[in-house]
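DATA SHEET
Item: assembly model
Revision: 1
Owner: S.N.
Input lines:
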Amino acid sequence: MAVEKVVAAVVDEIRSAGLVQLEVSARHVHLDKECVEVLFGKGYQLTHVRELSQPGQYLEQERVDVVGPKGTFKNVAVLGPERKHVQVEVSFSDAFALGINPPIRQSGDTKGSASVKLVGPKGEITIDEGAIVALRHVHMTPEDAERLGLVDNQVVSVEALTDRRTIFPDTVIRVSPNFRTRMHVDVDEAGAAHIAGFALGRIIK
Amino acid sequence: MAVEKVVAAVVDEIRSAGLVQLEVSARHVHLDKECVEVLFGKGYQLTHVRELSQPGQYLEQERVDVVGPKGTFKNVAVLGPERKHVQVEVSFSDAFALGINPPIRQSGDTKGSASVKLVGPKGEITIDEGAIVALRHVHMTPEDAERLGLVDNQVVSVEALTDRRTIFPDTVIRVSPNFRTRMHVDVDEAGAAHIAGFALGRIIK
């Protein structure tokens, strides 16, 4: 119990200092019902492997190939549950390798974004839109937001406190009781800042 | 002549405002004489394809494979002329794919850095050290340094003025009459900041 209290105190200290854990988000896809059925078969249900840091979000057992005009990534992770619209999140390095030109967007905002082909074991589908590079964002609980004096959609900078310090301006704070407080960066950002394993960022208002 | 004067005035304006052109430096190797002879044959001379932005530095026609414990990059660019010590410059994403753990170093400072195997058409060699991730740096002429009030080895931050603004702290100004004024970033940094084609950075003292 003493240890738990110490840990809780340290975590509180970290949070009140405006520090946030940085997590690397590699390329992945969120599928809608149509895509699941085309790629995996009529009536198919995705199979959870494990819950992600964001509650209710899962790494699924299924994998898909993402195909662009210039290149293919095989066995790309599928994150569940199913969404209303298909979304393919890549880094700019991925986009270059695929030969696509995705816009920088918040998750869910895929209108007019880039086209790619998805290939599964039972079929393939070219999505007219859905491929994006994630707009920088911090998932945050209402409690953490209040503690830090931040509100939903507020734009901050976040400095990665690593051995290759990098400051990420134009980072959106997204507040929801369904979130765990984490900043997600893509693999390019992770490489730029040498984020590997546990890493913290400092929120700069 | 009028156009040249306008261009010169614009370039001067850019420089005096503390702006610097950003260039992406993809993975590459600098070979020493021993490596050239092992990889390409006794007495072999590298063949220049074109001069790089830094005067006297060349992209060579020859290519080598860079092999790590977990992965290989085939046909990696060789930059010339030959150096006293072999040096392999990779991004952290490259390092992850190769399965190596290179330190962040200035060019030329390879003592105790990471080991990789190099493979050429005539042979292969495992270098005990030489693989690094480049310490962020700006090549600068003495004239530009004086204009901007900067000195050799001064550490600054540089903000990439792109549609994905990113600030790179801990960037070393390197001054030499042999340089052209440019900041080099690796492919991870380029992806993080969406540096593609012509891009400028702002030097923050």
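QC remark: Residues 28-134 of chain A form one domain.
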